[in-house]
């Protein structure tokens, strides 16, 4: 018996966007385009209910979504309310952290990202750094040369050195990406391998060579030396398949 050909339905399933998604989308677009400026106080929750025609629950959910994205902040008090804010590096770190953790990406992938981003940051830092930032890089590396540092102090100083180069690059996007990976950087350098005086001395020397290139404003040399340094850390770090990217990185703001 021949099978009857399946007919295409007259009406297909319609997907309707949730009301709070629509409201959040409208506000998000106006904030990101600058139509609603950073620092502006949005209408109160009750006013948003009246303006949008949505329920109080839908308005609260829309505001909550924007808060998670770092676009608004609910401030208490007489002069508080829902205030438009600018997403910062911590906002990006949270999203990148969620991406990495939800997919259980190994530390190796964070290391590969560092090998791409950090040499470019070093090149840009050589071109754009200030004298104050150069002095800070030298001071941080001098501090790293102290053989009496415990593992955590060494790891935090190392992270601060890398973060200072990122700031000196004047590239906010690359700097934010490095900040998002900062817990991975910290996790690598708090590893047992870095308790070895020879390895610490090698890090100190590698940093010194990068700083010399940045001081000379030699972008090509800074990029090349940073690439060698970051690639060398791959052999020292562990890669047990676990992600080491935190939702709350320990790096400086």
Automatic annotation (TrEMBL):
Pfam families: FCD (PF07729), GntR (PF00392). CDD domains: WHTH_GntR (cd07377). SUPFAM superfamilies: GntR ligand-binding domain-like, Winged helix' DNA-binding domain. The keyword Kinase does not apply. Signal peptide: none annotated. Gene3D superfamilies: GntR ligand-binding domain-like, Winged helix-like DNA-binding domain superfamily/Winged helix DNA-binding domain. Residues 234-253 are annotated as: Disordered. GO terms for molecular function: DNA binding; DNA-binding transcription factor activity. Residues 17-87 form the HTH gntR-type domain. Residues 234-245 have a biased composition (Basic and acidic residues). InterPro entries: GntR_C, TF_FadR/GntR_C, Tscrpt_reg_HTH_GntR, WH-like_DNA-bd_sf, WH_DNA-bd_sf. This is DNA-binding transcriptional regulator, FadR family. It comes from Tistlia consotensis USBA 355.
């Amino acid at each position: 018996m021949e099978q009857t050909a399946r007919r295409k339905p007259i009406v297909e399933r319609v997907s309707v966007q949730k009301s709070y998604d629509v409201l959040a989308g409208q506000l998000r677009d106006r904030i990101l385009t600058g139509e609603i400026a950073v620092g502006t106080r949005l209408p109160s929750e009750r006013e948003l209910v009246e303006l949008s025609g949505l329920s109080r629950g839908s308005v609260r959910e829309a505001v909550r979504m924007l808060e998670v994205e770092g676009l608004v902040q609910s401030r208490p008090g007489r002069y508080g309310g829902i205030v438009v804010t600018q997403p910062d590096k911590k906002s990006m770190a949270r999203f990148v952290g969620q991406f990495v953790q939800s997919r259980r990406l190994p530390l190796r992938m964070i290391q590969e990202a560092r090998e791409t981003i950090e040499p470019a940051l070093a090149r840009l830092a050589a071109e754009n750094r200030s004298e104050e930032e150069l002095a800070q890089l030298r001071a941080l590396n001098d501090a790293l040369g102290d053989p009496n540092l415990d593992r955590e102090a060494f790891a935090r100083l190392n992270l601060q050195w890398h973060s200072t180069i990122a700031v000196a690059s004047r590239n906010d996007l690359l700097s934010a990406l490095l900040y998002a990976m900062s817990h991975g950087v910290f996790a690598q350098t708090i590893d047992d391998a870095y308790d070895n005086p020879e390895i610490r001395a090698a890090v100190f020397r590698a940093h010194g060579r990068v700083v010399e290139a940045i001081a000379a404003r030699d972008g090509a040399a800074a990029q090349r030396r940073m690439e060698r340094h970051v690639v060398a850390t791959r052999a020292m770090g562990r890669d047990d398949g676990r992600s080491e990217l935190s939702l709350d990185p320990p790096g400086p703001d």
